[in-house]
Amino acid sequence: MVYTEERHLAVVSADANDGPARLKEQLHSGRNFVLVGSRKPHVMDTVCALLRTSLDRLPKPLSRNSLFMLGPHLGPQEFDAALEALQQGESVYFVEHLDLAATQPPKVRRYLVYCDVWGIISQHDELHDAENAWTDYLAAVNAQRPAPEAGIYKWEGDYWRSLETETHLLRQI
């Protein structure tokens, strides 16, 4: 199976009328996303409450260069909106699910197939199932379009540990 659909990161504006709903949608989906912050403290308080974090624990705002590095993973309109917000002095963040307090068992399973760009690809109770899903992800990558790599992560009680060594061994088999 080859992924033929074009996939893009979502850009969620905290100030938009549908901002909270879109933020909840991204949190529920497990997909990473770009968040355009707000200068209104009450709006950012709502954002932080939904992310289960505080303002000082948000990711470091993206620089212009960082946004351009994410450019291939954003749709043209979403990229333009994020760039315009950045140019207007808004804080723009790349939110990764592995960094969120809500992305911990029992809300998610013990093993994740996770991509640093896309987020959670799949969740599993057993390592064997995660390895199979990871192999399926690699087999599905379209050679015509470069795709971000994914890895297997295991919950260690208070942090996610990449099983990178084990996954590199799997590739050689």
Tell me what the structure shows.
This protein folds into two domains: 10-98, no CATH class; 111-172, no CATH class. 37% of the residues lie in helices and 18% in strands. It is built from six helices and seven strands. It has helices at 19-29, 41-51, 64-70, 76-87, 127-140, 164-172; strands at residues 10-13, 33-36, 92-95, 111-115, 119-124, 150-155, 160-162. Strands 5-4-6-7 form a four-stranded antiparallel sheet. Strands 1-2-3 form a three-stranded mixed sheet, with helices on both faces. Strand 6 (150-155) and strand 7 (160-162) form a beta hairpin. Helix 1 packs parallel to helix 2. The mean pLDDT is 89.
Write the layout of secondary structure elements.
Blueprint: E1 10-13, H1 19-29, E2 33-36, H2 41-51, H3 64-70, H4 76-87, E3 92-95, E4 111-115, E5 119-124, H5 127-140, E6 150-155, E7 160-162, H6 164-172
Helix pairs in contact: 1-2
Order of helices and strands: EHEHHHEEEHEEH
Q: Give average pLDDT, whole number.
A: 89
Order the strands across the largest sheet as they lie in space: 5-4-6-7
- Enumerate the spans where pLDDT stays under 50 for 5 or more consecutive residues: none
Q: What is the number of domains?
A: 2
What is Rg? Answer: 17 Å
Cα separation of the termini? 20 Å
How would you describe the shape?
globular
| Biggest sheet layout | 4 strands, antiparallel
Give helix % range. Answer: 25-40%
